[in-house]
Amino acid sequence: MELINGNQIAQQVTEELANEIRALPENQRPKVAFVRVGEDPASVSYVRKKEKTAAAVGIDSELHLFPEDISREDLFAEIDRLNADPSIHGILVQSPLPSHIPDQEAFDRVSAEKDVDGFHKVNLGKLCQEDSSGFVACTPSGVIEMLDRTGINIPGKHVVIVGRSLIVGKPLSLLFLRRDPLGDATVTVCHSKTPNLEEITRQADILVAAVGRPGIIRGHMVKPGATVIDVGINRVEDSSRKSGYALKGDVNFEEVEQVAAHLTPVPGGVGPMTVAMLMKNTYKAFQLAGDRA
Ligand code: NDP
What we know:
There is one protein chain. The chain contains ten helices and eleven strands. The protein is an alpha/beta fold. The protein folds into two domains: 27-114, Rossmann fold (3-Layer(aba) Sandwich), CATH 3.40.50; 138-271, NAD(P)-binding Rossmann-like Domain (Rossmann fold). Strand 9 and strand 10 form a beta hairpin. The chain binds NADPH dihydro-nicotinamide-adenine-dinucleotide phosphate. The site of NADPH dihydro-nicotinamide-adenine-dinucleotide phosphate has 25 residues, from helix 10.
């Protein structure tokens, strides 16, 4: 079994990007605004990681923090302000937002040209139409980039995705379906109402788990020789750790490593790819803004 090293692949992606940004004229740098509401510990840690990676590749960033009880109207006014600021090329609203502000409404409030998360309905529509001028969500595009850089062929393969969310499963299914050398797969998408999940997952040449249930993909659910991509990031109690928790994927690693030919670990798999693709999207937003000017 070959472990797919997401840290290493993400590093390649960000180094290539850093070289491109270094070559820009001194006064031209991409800039991203991070919007975080409240103090959800996972959100705090994700945004911190994104800020650090941005700094490492030469992208400027601004953090906009708001209290948990900010009204929907006030948050949207802040997003409008960032939309109107020409010095900002990308805007990321960290989810989950408090329950009185629907995540998708906030994603759609960000101008489609600055939607580096790729969650805006215009960008989801462009993905559906195979129009490459839009932004593709970072986790799905990170999965494809990872497969490509590992040399795993996609065309003609049967891909099974477990999970149909708008931020992972659904856009990833569209990427695999594209008429493209990194697409052209036959795609099956499973979810919580899918009966006999294991019968379907066992048919996968490439199996992607994006569920949010630790260890749900067991060894007997995987075809021998398959490629298994574990998108899940689950905080599981672990008193032996200082933090009190460990990060676990949706894949039962010990069982699946006996069966799969390629497997991504958690942490150190898809997670770093997501951050790297966010940087690529920010650079694309910067370039598109330059083209429009
Ligand atoms: P959602 O909760 O939005 O979606 C989960 C999906 O899994 C749903 O489609 C749901 O079905 C399906 N599901 C739930 N239970 C089962 C089950 N028993 N059998 C089959 N399918 C099931 O989660 P996200 O897509 O946002 O995230 C999924 C995981 O990926 C999480 O662990 C999250 O933390 C992680 N993640 C990791 C990222 C990274 O960078 N690596 C980025 C984003 C997410 P239904 O639609 O019927 O409810």
